[in-house]
Amino acid sequence: MIANDDVVDIWTIVVAAGSGSRFGGPKQFFDLRGERVVDRSVRIAAAHSAGVVVVLSAEVLEETGPSRLTPGSSTRVVVVVGSDTRSGSVREGLAAVPAEATVILVHDGARPLATDEVYERVLLAVAAGADAVVPVVPVTDTIRRRSGGVVDRADLVAIQTPQGFRAEALRAAHAAADDATDDATLVEAGGGRVVLVDGDSDNMKITDPSDLEIARLLLARRGETP
Amino acid sequence: MIANDDVVDIWTIVVAAGSGSRFGGPKQFFDLRGERVVDRSVRIAAAHSAGVVVVLSAEVLEETGPSRLTPGSSTRVVVVVGSDTRSGSVREGLAAVPAEATVILVHDGARPLATDEVYERVLLAVAAGADAVVPVVPVTDTIRRRSGGVVDRADLVAIQTPQGFRAEALRAAHAAADDATDDATLVEAGGGRVVLVDGDSDNMKITDPSDLEIARLLLARRGETP
C-alpha cells in the first residue's frame, strides 16, 4: 500500500485530448453509469496523486468546461489544452506538472476501469528504481503479420495505462523525441530501465459504443452501484 | 450469396475438444441465452455446409452425448473424439470429412458469434482460388515484446475462424506437419496461397465467464431474442 504521505511527489497526466471522431463524439465524455468516462479516470488517478493534469482538446474545453473534473479531495486538478498527437498532448501535460514532482504517471482518459491495485503495482515498481513501468496483460488472440506468418504470442503483451515514470526520465525522453505511440518506448529508446507489471484484463480502453456497454457490465460485476 | 446448391461440397469441422480447465468446465458447453455455446456454433456452421464434423473430448461426449448437436436441417452432423492438441483434433475431424468434400472450413466451437457474412466472405475467397482463407480483425491494443520494444500494430492482425481451405491443401498440410496453433499457417508453410478477409469484431472466442456475459450483450444488441 502506498500511504497518503507518499503521494506528495506523484502527479498523474490524464490524456483525453482525442477528438473521438471514430464514433461521433469524444468517447471520453460518454456516460458510464452517471459519470463521464474521463471523470472516473480522473477520480481514480486523484486517489493516487498529489495532483492531476487533465489534457483536453480545445473544442471539448470550450464546450464542457473543466467544472466536473474536480474529484472533491485535496488533490490539485489542472486542465490544459492538448495537441494533435498523443505525444504532443503528454508534453503539454508535462509542462503543467510542478518541478517538485518526482514520479509522473501517464494515464489514458479512456481507461476508466483502472483499479487501485494496478496503480499500486506501477507506483511500487517506480519506487523500486524503474525509469518506466508499464502494466501489461497477455495477448489472448492468435496474432499474424499481414505480410505472412503467425507471431509467437508468448513473447507479446498488450500495453495498458497508468504507466509510471521517474519524472526526470519522462521529461528527458520527451525533450529528446518528437513522437511515439508509447511513452515507455521513448524512455527505453533513451536507455532507461523499463519494468513490466501485471495490468488487469478489465482495464479496457473505451474505443467504441459496445466498449461502453462492456464497461458498464464489468462495473456491475464488481458490485459498484451507479 | 452462396446459394444452397453450392454448399454440397462444403464441410465444416467445429473444434470443441478443449477441457476448459481455465474456468472449471468446458467453456463450449456453457449456456448462451438458452443454447450451449457449441450448439450455436454448429447451428451457424450447418447453415453454410453440407455436413459438420463436431470434435469433442471423450469426457464431454460420454457426459453430454451428441444429442443436442442436431441443427434440425438436412445438414449431416458427425461427432468424433478429439485429441490433446488443437491440430490433433483437426486431424481427427478431417478423417471424418467425406472424400468428396472440396472445401473444408475449420471453426472454433467457442466462437458462437460468427456471422453469416464472415462465412460468406471466407467461402467466396476459397471459391476465388485461395488455398487457405483467414478472417482477421485489426489489433486495437498497443503491443509490446516482453523482451523490449513496441511492435508495429499496423502490420498485425488478430486471427478468427471460420477459416476456409481448399480441401486438398488442408489435407496435405496436416499430413505433412505435427502441430500448429493455426491451420492456415500450416498451409502457408507448405507453399499454399493464404488470403485474409475481414472478420468481425463481435466474433469473439469465449475464454472466460466475463466473455459469456459480453457475448450475451452482443447478441442482445443484434436484437436476437433468447
SSE topology sketch:
The structure is a homodimer of 226-residue chains.
Chain A: E1 10-16, E2 31-32, E3 35-36, H1 37-46, E4 51-56, H2 58-64, E5 76-81, H3 86-95, E6 103-108, H4 116-127, E7 132-138, E8 143-145, E9 150-151, E10 156-159, E11 163-166, H5 167-176, H6 183-189, E12 194-198, H7 209-221
Parallel strand pairs in A: 1-4, 1-6, 4-5, 7-12
Antiparallel strand pairs in A: 2-3, 6-11, 7-10, 7-11, 8-9
Report what the structure shows.
Two copies of one chain form a homodimer. Chain A is α/β, with parallel strands linked by helices and 226 residues long. Chain A has a single domain, classed as Spore Coat Polysaccharide Biosynthesis Protein SpsA, Chain A. Helix content of chain A is 31%, strand content 24%. Chain A has helices spanning 37-46, 58-64, 86-95, 116-127, 167-176, 183-189, 209-221, and strands at residues 10-16, 31-32, 35-36, 51-56, 76-81, 103-108, 132-138, 143-145, 150-151, 156-159, 163-166, 194-198. In chain A, strands 1, 4, 5, 6, 7, 10, 11 and 12 form an eight-stranded mixed beta sheet that branches. Chain A has a two-stranded antiparallel sheet with strand order 2-3. The longest helix of chain A is centred in the last third of the chain and has 13 residues, at 209-221. The radius of gyration of chain A is 17 Å and the shape is globular. The A-B interface holds A 134, 136, 139-151, 155-159, 181-182, 185, 188, 194, 196, 201-202, 205, 207, 210, 213-214, 217-218, 221 and B 134, 136, 139-151, 155-159, 181-182, 185, 188, 194, 196, 201-202, 205, 207, 210, 213-214, 217-218, 221. β8 (143-145) of chain A pairs antiparallel with β10 (156-159) of chain B, so a sheet runs across the interface.
